[in-house]
């Protein structure tokens, strides 16, 4: 099957959108192929051409989302060879643009009725990205327990995302990027004192 075929792209897009609609009110395990196909407007045979089960569709969606998150996370580093917290340019921060792009998924992740497994998938990815980006830095040895420091930083990012979600994602991604830059720069100034 040609993944670049417009029909395949449209079908998969419809299935991904239907999955998000159904996840708003149902746990992943409760979503049947029939309900998914009804919501997407495709037949079961078409679904099975692309996926073995609903969880495979979810896994594909999550993989695409986390790949985009990774690209967004590393954008400031690509823009500056040696990234300094005090010189962080908010226009290079792309994580909030990523969240806006995938807002329907993040509405599910941060919904109090949703499974915590979605939250922890996101948390673990952010923590792993932080670990990769900080592991080579000389200051990583300054912490007694590096894992706690990574957990703290990942939860700080998650906290901003939860706060943004709590406001209905009303602020622009650029505004949120500026807020993150302000917080990071404030921390950098305090560390120099």
From TrEMBL:
<dbReference type="Pfam" id="PF14278">
    <property type="entry name" value="TetR_C_8"/>
</dbReference>
<dbReference type="InterPro" id="IPR039532">
    <property type="entry name" value="TetR_C_Firmicutes"/>
</dbReference>
<feature type="domain" description="HTH tetR-type">
    <location>
        <begin position="9"/>
        <end position="69"/>
    </location>
</feature>
<dbReference type="InterPro" id="IPR001647">
    <property type="entry name" value="HTH_TetR"/>
</dbReference>
<dbReference type="InterPro" id="IPR050624">
    <property type="entry name" value="HTH-type_Tx_Regulator"/>
</dbReference>
<protein>
    <submittedName>
        <fullName>TetR family transcriptional regulator</fullName>
    </submittedName>
</protein>
<feature type="DNA-binding region" description="H-T-H motif">
    <location>
        <begin position="32"/>
        <end position="51"/>
    </location>
</feature>
<dbReference type="InterPro" id="IPR009057">
    <property type="entry name" value="Homeodomain-like_sf"/>
</dbReference>
<dbReference type="GO" id="GO:0003677">
    <property type="term" value="F:DNA binding"/>
</dbReference>
<keyword id="KW-0238">DNA-binding</keyword>
């Amino acid at each position: 099957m040609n993944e670049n075929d417009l029909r395949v792209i449209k079908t998969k897009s419809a299935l991904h959108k239907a999955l998000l609609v159904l996840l708003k009110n149902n746990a992943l395990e409760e979503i049947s192929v029939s309900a998914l196909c009804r919501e997407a407007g495709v037949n079961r045979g078409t679904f099975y051409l692309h996926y073995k089960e609903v969880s495979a569709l979810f896994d594909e969606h999550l993989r695409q989302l986390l790949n985009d998150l990774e690209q967004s996370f590393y954008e400031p580093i690509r823009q500056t060879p040696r990234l300094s917290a005090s010189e962080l340019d908010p226009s290079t921060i792309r994580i909030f643009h990523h969240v806006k792009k995938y807002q329907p998924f993040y509405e599910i992740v941060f919904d109090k009725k949703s499974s915590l497994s979605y939250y922890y998938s996101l948390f673990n990815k952010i923590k792993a990205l932080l670990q990769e980006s900080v592991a080579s830095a000389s200051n990583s040895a300054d912490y007694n327990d590096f894992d706690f420091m990574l957990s703290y930083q990942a939860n700080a990012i998650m906290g901003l995302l939860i706060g943004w979600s709590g406001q209905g994602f009303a602020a622009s991604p650029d505004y949120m990027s500026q807020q993150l830059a302000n917080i990071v720069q404030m921390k950098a100034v305090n560390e120099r004192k």
